[in-house]
Each structure stands twice: as structure tokens, then as C-alpha cells.
Amino acid sequence: YGDHRDLHSFPTDALPICISSQKAKSKDDEMSFANKEKTKYQKLYNGLKKAQALANIGHWELDLINDALFWSDEVYRIFGLKPQEFGATYEAFLNHIHPSDRDRVNNAYIDSLRTKEGYHIEHRIIRQNGEIGFVEERCEHEFDDLGRAVKSIGTVHDITDKKKAQNELLLSSAVFKKMNDGVLITDEKQSIITINKAFSKISGYSLEEVRGKTPKIFSSGWHDKFFYEELWDDIEKKHQWRGEIKDRKKNGQLYSAEITIIALRDEKGTLTNYISIVNDVTKKKEQEELIHNLAYFDSLTNLPNRVLFHERVTNRIPVHKSNNKKMALLFIDMDNFKNINDTLGHFVGDRFLIETSKLIKSAVCEQDTLCRLGGDEFIIMIENIESLMEAALAAENIVKKFSDPVIVDKKELYSGVSIGISIYPDDASTYEELIKAADTAMYHVKESGKNSYQFYKQSMNEKVTNRMLIENDLRNAINKDELYLEYQPKVDLDSKTVYGMEALLRWEHSQVGLIKPDMFISIAEETGQIQDIGLWVVKQAVKDIKIFHDKGHDLSISINVSSKQLDNDSFVGDVCKIVDDIGVDKSYIEFEITETHIMKNVDKAMAILNELHAKGFKLSIDDFGTGYSSLSYLKRLPVKTIKIDRSFVLDIDKDEEDRSIVATIVAIAESLGKEVIAEGSETRSHINALKLLNCNKVQGYFFSKPLKKENFEEFANNFNMERFFA
């Protein structure tokens, strides 16, 4: 290496060249061989540079005769220098040693020269940018024949990262031992390796008692498997989990802990350990619960107070708005509390309010929010109501609860309740407005005689009153013989005959008069009364068709069936028994089911329809085209007839779209081998249009309105289709 100065300062042609012993044949051959040798040594030099960089180890040589210092590229990198920035002398080298380590390094070097032995030392360096690093140095010396040192050769190993890791480990160890939070460390199989003193204090276990076991020994049984599944799912995906766990101490005592579980992985991503950091928050939770209860719950009844109720309603309003749902507030005021309180004293008054809160709570659903506003005022939030009846029934239940006396210390105390009801969003859109509306409605009850309930709007009161009247009186309509049937003729335009009849239910209320089916059928379905009413309709219709058959009329009869009836598992058996007892061939009985009802639960509907078909009944799809069925279902349904909804017939003579829809339905029916009938045929134009579209079975006001049994018989006996077109 010449004078051992930095190799970077040498031109490429200064590299050593070995000449072959074989004499070159020419000057050109000699130059070619020399170039090859230079390339070879350049590659060796580059390889050495890469090896040193990979190992973070550089080497240096000090020519003691010429005081020339050589550093490899990696040494320059370790010191944060460029070759031209460094004066290559031993003294300059010492200047890059940390001042506190400089004497130690120099003495080690001098001692090694004196003892003629190499040395090994770790020390700090100051890089060019001022950053402190750590290196490990090794050095050997070369001596001449007289024993004088002529060269020192050494290596410099950058151990900065190693030192930092060691320091961090020492720091972590100190923190681990002294930190206030409990720490538990396991291996990758969750076998406990160690715990710190804080964890031992929290759990009551010593390290010897838990080492080699799993954290399951702390389990309280409080959490279900889904809790732990979510916990481990988080650890698997995010490599950590943070949350609250209720664990059990060695003495069996439960405690609440905030825990962070971290999954440690090595540089290859292999799981090595789990670390759990545990903070006992039992006292904190107890204090928070106490503060929460004082802030949000009534101290007398333990019900939510005004503050909590305000929060809940305010939070739920946006949810109901986005879901387009209604919500009801029931404002309750005790009618006789002041008299009880003034006469019997505050102690009895408090006991009365406690019992009152229990009675009200027993009258509402668990998911409803009941609150004590203060004094003798309570309020209830009922969410996601489908109809006003839900709020009305809740209020009625509460009123009924106070028809009997409230027992306090064996005393019978009577007090009715006045309840005002407001509806979101019908009456108001904010908490304050809803409370005000319910309060106003409650005062109307007070002025009207107390012990009842009212809605904020009079129109709602009338609607609910009518609904309650219908529901209550419908229960006795059969026994009072207020129900009856009318029959609408079905006409075959080809044969020009009346071939069948549809049974239509009517209710003649003894006081109100005729109540339309669309006003009471839905109520009958909601209350479950449709089961008894539906069987009454079947029985009456089959009796009447039997009479017509006995008189020689070969008529079929169709009876409407709701999805609620099909939900009853005994429906098929019940109608079979009725028809068999009366003695009518089932092929004359046709059950009409709306398309929408079928599609609500296709599989169940198809099972029941197949069962009815197997028994011999005819089946028809009512209101076809208004629902959302598909041809795949239609071809599987065992129906004989498709009934075109009247909404498509009303404008068939002047609306091209309606004509196209009817033509399509007729074509579908023909392709599937099913009959088709059009209801709502009210004019001659309707009939003519339907005939042109090959729909030859009709029913509607053009031929006849629904008729009572006696009038239907007269109509059938005297039917002459030509008369209608005269």
C-alpha cells in the first residue's frame, strides 16, 4: 500500500500488479495482462468494502515510521467523515475520541506497545455531526528485528445499536421493577415468564406461584367467549388490545383492571412474547359509579333522573330521524300525591313514590326509559313505535295499575294518574318541545277529570279513540251477529254466465253503523283476532255455497286469506274440518292470497299453499302486479288463477301502459297454464278492452256490486249478459 495513506487518494493504476513468470510475447500482451490484474484486485478491494459495510467493521493501519494513518471506507462511515475531511495522523484520530474516554484509549494503546501485546477496548466516539457513538476496537502491532514497533493494525466495530439496546434493556428492567402498573410477560404459548412487584401486589400471587402457568388463573368467569374472541382477534390483527377486564385475585376477590396486551414479534415477524400492562381501577370505577349515580339517578327511586333522561332523548332523536321512526314521551303526574304527602307526612310520601315507581315500571316494556323528573312527576320514552296504539296501550296499562290502591305500611293509598303523550316528530323535533307538548297534554287530562291520558293533538285522540273502539267491539262482533258476508259475482264473458262468487266481509256495528273492511281488517290482524274472524268467514261462506249447490247452482266461491292466517300452523286443518263437516267438494273452494303476503315469507307460504292444493282446494293470487314477485316463484306456486288488480283496469280503456301491463299478465298466465280474472271492471269500455286482450273472466260494478246472499241468488237466476250491452 505504498506509504499507507488512504487508498482513495491513489489512482487505479497504482494498485499492485503481479507479472506472470511467463515472458510476454509483446508489449501489447503485457499491457493486456496488467489490465486484467488491476481489474482482479479492484474487484477484491470492492468486495472487502462491501464485507466491512455489512459487518459494521472497518480496519485501519498506522505506519509508526512515517506517522501515516490509513482508514478503510467503513471507518470513515463509522466516524461520520469523508476521506478528505480527516488529517490522517494518530493525534487527529485521538481528537475524534470522546474527551472522557480519550486518556483511557491512549493509555491502552501505549501499554500495548510497551507490553508488545494487542489490546481490546470499547469506547465512545464523537462523529463529525456531534452525535455520540460506541465502538469496539482491537489492535495488534508489528515489530522489526530490534523489537521496535513499526506498524499498528486494528479494527473498529460500530456497536452503537448494540449499546443502545443494552442501555434500553437496563432501563426497561429498572422500569419493569419499579413501575406502579402491573406487568406480566409470557412466552409465545402464553406461559408466564415473569411478573413485577406491582402485578404481584394487584393479584396477590408471587412469581413462583404463577411462573409456567397461563393468565387463565386470573379469570373471574365474568366475560363470555365472545369477549375473548374479539380480544384475540384484535391482537391477531393489530398486535395489541386495550380494554377493561374484570379479574379475580388470589383471595377470590374481583377487581376491575385496565389492561393493554401487546404481542411482540422479532425482526422476521415471528411471535416471541406477550406483555400485559395492568392497572387496577377498582376504586376508580367505584368512585366513577358513585359520581355517575349522583349525577344521573334519582336517589329515592333509583330511576334515571331529569339529566340522564335529557341525554337519552337528545341522543336518540337523530337516530329516529335517520331511520324515519317515531318516538313517544309519556308525561305522568300523580293525581292525589299532594294530599297524601300533606296528610301522612313526607316519610310516607317518599315510600308512596317508591311503590309508584315500581308500579309504573311494571307496566312498561324493559327497553323503554322511565325517569323521575322530580316530586310526583315521571316520564317515559318509548322508541321505534309503529303506531299511536303502542303509546296509547302503554298509557292505558299505567292507568289500570292505579285502579287498585297502593299499599304503604299496610295503608291503602289511592291515587290515579294523568298522562300526556307527545310524538316525535309529529308534535315536535327537540327535547324541550316534546316535553312541553307532553306536559300540555297532561294538563288537559287534569282539566278533563284526571286519571286518564291524552295525546297532544286532538286529532290523535280521535284516531286512538276510534281505534280502541274498533278493537274492543270487534272482539264481540261475532257473538253479536254483527258480521255478515256479501258476494260479488264472477262472470265468464265467453260462456256469458256467472261461474263464481267472491266472499266479502262486512261489519254492521250496532251503534256506529257500517264499518269498512279497510278500517278493521288490519286491526284484526295486529291483535290476532283475524284467526277467529277468518274461520268464521270460511264457515259462513262454505255454508252459503252449499245452499247454492243444493239449489242446482254450479258455483265456486273464493275466500280472501291473510298472511297472518297462514302463519297459524293449524289453519289447513281447521279449514279442512269446516269444509268436510259441511259437506262441500273442496274443488269449489278457492282461497285468494295477495301477492305481497306470499312474498313476505315465500318458503312458508309455498309450503302451506302446496298443502292446501294437495287437499283439493283451488288457489288464486290476488292483486297481481302490485307486488314484487318473480316468474321463478310464480311457476312454482300451485295457483289456478291470477287476479289482475283493479288499479290496472280502471284506466285500461285510455292508458296505454295499463293496457300493456294487463296484456303482459294475460300472456304470462296463458304461458303458465293459469286462468286470469280482472277485478274492478266497472264500465262497458273496461269490458270491451279486456275482451280484446283475451281476458274473459271479470268481476266488478259493471255487472254487479257485492250482494247479500238472497240478492245474489236472484241475480244468478236472472243473469242475461246481453241485457248489459243493450
Strand content: 15-25%
Overall body shape: elongated
Helicity level: 40-55%
Terminal CA distance reads: 131 Å
Count the DSSP helices.
Answer: 27
Q: Could you give a short account of the major beta sheet?
A: 8 strands, mixed, barrel
Biggest sheet strand line-up: 18-19-21-22-23-24-25-26
**Mean pLDDT level:** 85
Kindly provide the radius of gyration, computed on alpha-carbon positions and rounded to a whole number of angstroms: 48 Å
Q: Could you list the spans in which at least 5 consecutive residues all have pLDDT below 50?
A: 1-24
Helix vs. strand class: alpha+beta
Can you count the beta strands?
26
Q: What does this entry look like structurally?
A:
- With 726 residues, the chain is α+β, with helices and mostly antiparallel strands.
- Helices cover 45% and strands 25% of the residues.
- It contains 27 helices and 26 strands.
- Helix 17 runs parallel beside helix 19 (571-582).
- The radius of gyration is 48 Å and the shape is elongated.
- The model is unreliable at 1-24 (pLDDT under 50).
